[in-house]
């Protein structure tokens, strides 16, 4: 699996070479303070020209392969009946064993359709953990989300290799309490995004299937982050250490009734789709594709992207490709820990998750602990991560702040994008920041949208801490960028 070094050093080795490059810009720390202020202390609102390493997300920013680029040139441009769509549809059937495929422009578009078709006022959707857009599309249709994760899921320094597992007892209890008729569907998310890219096991998925069969419920499987989850099953679930990635994928897909994905994450391109073997479900969802997405043979995607997804899904079955992300994340987490920086363990997929609660124990959640840390990391390094904490929640009906279960900053690891020296640079700057953490202060909203406020909301620093931090940076680093 991994290549050993004669020196005994344990570092991940890129099993690909870089053939197209993009010049990066690292602005001086004074400009970084200004840029952060202009962006309302919200890393989503930074302009990419001011960003050195874009670690905001893995969405739509994964590097394409030579094979993907080549396939894009062959795309068949037609509104209806495109050969490109047929190729993608066949690839979905080959890999996931699902006959019917509905294309959509991204993951939340699939969630919109699932929400409109299956969620009516009063319906409940149990899930291992919510994702922002998945929850929004359930609540906007009058439903509620019931999270049935293991208690261990919220333990940030755990030894549990499958923190993304559904707690089966809690699942059964919620179905009994609400009544099976009131359950819209059960949703399992692979590589649970908001708890740090933590995987679920095949064994757990089998147990969920059993419960769904017992109560005659649909199992909807969000496979946006499947690539990382597959790697973790292969390397952490004993029964699957000799199974091929393809076989694991097929076994998981067979356990679900409907699966959907964001191809901005899965498949190294941009797009999405829903797949099922049920003709009835296919027909129920189909009309919404033409209403919201486009004709059934593109669903809002360009034919070029569909070609790239087809090849990208194939590459997702290649262990050497999907290993790179989790291995780099493990490396970054280990290096940060060596320097005392609190990170989520075990390292998950998607990105390195820093525990802002322990990093900034002097900043209360009401002052957006993780948001403040994300702003400070940008100022210290030019790398932008994403706040995953109270800023990403929304207030309740009475305007009361919903405090997040955890305050994390996610430094995403877009697949196949960064080199190890870049990761070493960001580790170095975060370690410096940790040693100067008492300089960091809290924030408050000055512009606060009601829905998904973390995308557009603007904040202000409660004191002039960003300037003080930059001053200390100059003292310690001299003329260095
Ligand atoms: C990103 C993501 C989505 C939404 O996909 P988009 O393409 O961003 O709309 C849904 N579920 C999970 C688990 C995700 O990570």
UniProtKB/TrEMBL annotation:
<keyword id="KW-0456">Lyase</keyword>
<dbReference type="InterPro" id="IPR011166">
    <property type="entry name" value="Beta-eliminating_lyase"/>
</dbReference>
<dbReference type="InterPro" id="IPR001597">
    <property type="entry name" value="ArAA_b-elim_lyase/Thr_aldolase"/>
</dbReference>
<dbReference type="InterPro" id="IPR015424">
    <property type="entry name" value="PyrdxlP-dep_Trfase"/>
</dbReference>
<dbReference type="Pfam" id="PF01212">
    <property type="entry name" value="Beta_elim_lyase"/>
</dbReference>
<keyword id="KW-0663">Pyridoxal phosphate</keyword>
<dbReference type="GO" id="GO:0009072">
    <property type="term" value="P:aromatic amino acid metabolic process"/>
</dbReference>
<dbReference type="InterPro" id="IPR015422">
    <property type="entry name" value="PyrdxlP-dep_Trfase_small"/>
</dbReference>
<protein>
    <submittedName>
        <fullName>Tryptophanase</fullName>
    </submittedName>
</protein>
<feature type="domain" description="Aromatic amino acid beta-eliminating lyase/threonine aldolase">
    <location>
        <begin position="54"/>
        <end position="427"/>
    </location>
</feature>
<comment type="similarity">
    <text>Belongs to the beta-eliminating lyase family.</text>
</comment>
<dbReference type="InterPro" id="IPR015421">
    <property type="entry name" value="PyrdxlP-dep_Trfase_major"/>
</dbReference>
<feature type="modified residue" description="N6-(pyridoxal phosphate)lysine">
    <location>
        <position position="265"/>
    </location>
</feature>
<dbReference type="GO" id="GO:0016830">
    <property type="term" value="F:carbon-carbon lyase activity"/>
</dbReference>
């Amino acid at each position: 699996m991994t290549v050993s070094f004669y020196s005994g050093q344990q570092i991940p080795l890129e099993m690909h070479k870089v053939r197209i490059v993009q010049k990066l810009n690292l602005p001086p720390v004074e400009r970084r303070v200004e840029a952060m202020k202009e962006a309302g202390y919200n890393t989503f609102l930074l302009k990419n020209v001011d960003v050195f390493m874009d670690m905001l997300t893995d969405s739509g920013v994964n590097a394409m392969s030579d094979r993907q680029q080549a396939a894009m040139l062959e795309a068949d441009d037609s509104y209806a009946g495109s050969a490109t769509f047929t190729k993608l549809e066949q690839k979905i059937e080959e890999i996931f064993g699902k006959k019917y495929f509905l294309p959509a422009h991204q993951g939340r578009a699939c969630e919109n359709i699932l929400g409109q078709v299956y969620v009516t006022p009063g319906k409940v959707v149990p899930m291992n953990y919510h994702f922002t857009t998945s929850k929004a599309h359930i609540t906007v249709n009058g439903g509620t989300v019931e999270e049935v994760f293991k208690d261990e899921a919220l333990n940030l320094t755990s030894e549990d290799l499958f923190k993304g597992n559904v707690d089966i007892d809690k699942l059964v209890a919620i179905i009994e309490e609400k009544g099976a008729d009131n359950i819209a569907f059960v949703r399992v998310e692979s590589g649970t995004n908001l708890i740090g890219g933590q995987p679920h096991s095949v064994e757990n998925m089998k147990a969920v299937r059993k419960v769904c069969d017992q109560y005659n419920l649909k199992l909807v499987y969000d496979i946006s982050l499947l690539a990382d989850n597959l790697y973790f099953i292969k390397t952490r679930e004993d029964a699957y250490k000799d199974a091929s990635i393809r076989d694991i994928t097929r076994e998981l897909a067979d356990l679900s009734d409907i699966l959907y994905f964001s191809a901005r994450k899965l498949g190294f391109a941009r797009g999405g789709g829903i797949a099922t073997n049920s003709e009835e479900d296919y027909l129920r969802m189909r009309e919404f594709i033409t209403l919201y997405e486009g004709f059934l043979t593109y669903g809002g995607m360009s034919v070029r992207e569909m070609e790239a997804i087809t090849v990208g899904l194939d590459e997702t079955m290649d262990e050497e490709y999907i290993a790179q992300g989790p291995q780099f994340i493990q490396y970054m987490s280990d290096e940060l820990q060596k320097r005392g920086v609190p990170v989520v363990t075990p390292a998950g997929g998607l990105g390195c998750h820093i525990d802002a609660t322990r990093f900034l124990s002097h900043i209360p959640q009401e002052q957006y602990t993780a948001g403040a840390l994300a702003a400070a990391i940008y100022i210290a390094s030019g790398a932008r991560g994403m706040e995953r904490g109270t800023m990403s929640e929304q207030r309740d009906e009475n305007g009361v702040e919903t405090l997040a279960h955890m305050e994390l900053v996610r430094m995403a690891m877009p697949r196949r994008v960064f080199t190890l020296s870049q990761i070493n640079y960001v580790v170095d700057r975060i370690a410096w920041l940790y040693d100067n953490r008492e300089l960091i202060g809290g924030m408050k909203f000055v512009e606060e949208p009601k829905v998904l406020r973390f995308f557009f909301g603007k904040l202000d620093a409660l004191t002039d801490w960003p300037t003080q931090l930059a001053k200390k940076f100059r003292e310690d680093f001299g003329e260095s960028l």
